[in-house]
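Let us begin with a simple case.
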Amino acid sequence: MIGGAVPQQGKLVAGGASAMLASAARLAVLLAVLLIIVQALIVVQARPQDLITGIHGMADIIRRATPPDFSHIDDTFWPALETIDIAIFGTIAGIIMALPLAVLAAANVTPSRPFYYAARGLIGFTRSVPDLVWALFFVTAVGLGPFPGGLALAVHSIGMLGRLFAETIEHMDMAPIDALALTGARRLQIFTHGVVPSVLPSLLGISLYRLDENIRSSLVLGFVGAGGIGFQLLTAMNLFQYREVSLLLIVTFVIVLGAERLSAALRQKLA
């Protein structure tokens, strides 16, 4: 009995030590999270009291922005159309350029490792540079207007779509691909008859989601001269025409909400 109690007591001691280590680890993680939050508050110089004291200024702007100036509603139609078309152009161009890169960047279908790393590097680079920076670059290259905005969204979409497309291809069922390869099908035939049918619904859903995101982004690109309703919004703000600003914000809300609902409905049909 005594010999059997000793191992049992050893297990209890070991279990207690493990529980203490787990508690210490949880406490260390909690302290690390708190330190991260505190240093973030210090770095951003968070001052909630300034927000409270500045509420009168915000209330004054809201007062001067109401009611919205609907007499300028006709002037918003063309910039709104520009905003939507910038997003459509950027999304379509991004899909066209991202799809072949995604095939090269998918480990299960890439023709060689150098192509894989090169495609992954290009996708990562286009994704790491913000679309606003791309817009500044293309505004400098081709001038003001909606075209640089569309180019900026297209290049940035290469990175976002390329990564998601590649991951989708990597997780697809390889049985149809292997069956086609055994029949002696060429790479192009395997891609068109095996890869595309397997991943097409997922790629369409991702593309619709990206179009929704691009519409939101195109609203901001106008602030750097890339056309759309954002440019008109910036102009109205610089001229202190706050009633027109409120009108443009309403139009922006309608565009974003409409695009979001349409994209969600189409993705649901594809699911």
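The second case is a distinct protein. As before, the sequence precedes its structure tokens.
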Amino acid sequence: MDLEILKKIIQKASWAPSGDNCQPWRFNWNGKQLKIYHIEVRAHHSLNFNNQVSLFTLGGLIEYLHIASLHYGYEPTFTLPDPTNLDPNFLTQVHFKKTTPQPQPLFEALSLRATDRRPFKNTPLDEKIVNNLLSVSKDFKQANAYVCTAPSEELKKYLVASEVLLFSNKAFLFDIIKWVRFRNKETIDSKDGLPWRNLGVGLRETIVLWLIKRYPKLYDLFKHMGMYNQVSLAAQKLVKSHTTFICFTVKSNENHLIESGRLALRSWLLLAKHGVSAQPMSSGAMLLYKQIVYPKDNFSTKAMTTHFNNGRLILQSSFGFSESERPIWLLRVGLSDPLNNNMKTYRRSVDQIFEVEA
């Protein structure tokens, strides 16, 4: 395989999203196959229970690799890890077969897709885009996507409460803010993590998060001062802007998380191609998935357990998925202006994530 083309494929694939933009992948080429290693130390997060988030985002990475490979004239075949016997630093293998370059409708969207945590414009999505989203699921047997264009107040309240619970849990919050970049130079130098301007909260809350990251003992003080009331107000502003929601589900446990991740990213790329903005609202689905699959591993509070038990019924009513399906991911989508450069995430260079065996 042409090494320079392989580097181009990896460069495109590096733009696949990951939790808090932690980029937990390392690529190795031995002349015959591409090995993709999961870097557990980067992926470690309270939300990433049993690496279920990593498996889901691996699906997105595979979708990116698939599109980029076909564009450059190589057909990839993937050997996936066994989710039922998963090593923390699990391995995915890719073999390439030379073929004729095939124009990919979503190729340009690979680097256009971005997370937008701003309120959206008061303009509904084009019905053709909604229908296209629904048709994407036909290519996947064990995963589905459901669209809600007229969210109920009950759904909005559930999603707001889920965001507040995420920020009010100390372990979750500290795992998030370790990836927040509070200075432009830090964002540019690290080429990972989340720029503070695109956190979806106000300046005052951003300053509070910076202080907590710098002085962790301040957490309890700010919690007692009611900082989460401000988080709630910010989340309400987002979900009450003209918003469509997409819920992604799997039909079994870990075995189909990768497939669901592929479906989710193909849907997101389709949105990006049509100029539609999107924001993952992970807590409302991923924490619920954890509770369904691992019921004995209870949350730290009864309030969280009750909240997500009710949440399953709310999501099922809002999106219409069956009892046998498990919600895994939510996207808030709508129309907005292009992101400013200082709101965009960065990616580490190919030289930092790719190595060739001697």
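The mean pLDDT is 91. The longest strand covers residues 326-334.
Keep these points in mind for the review questions at the end of the chapter.
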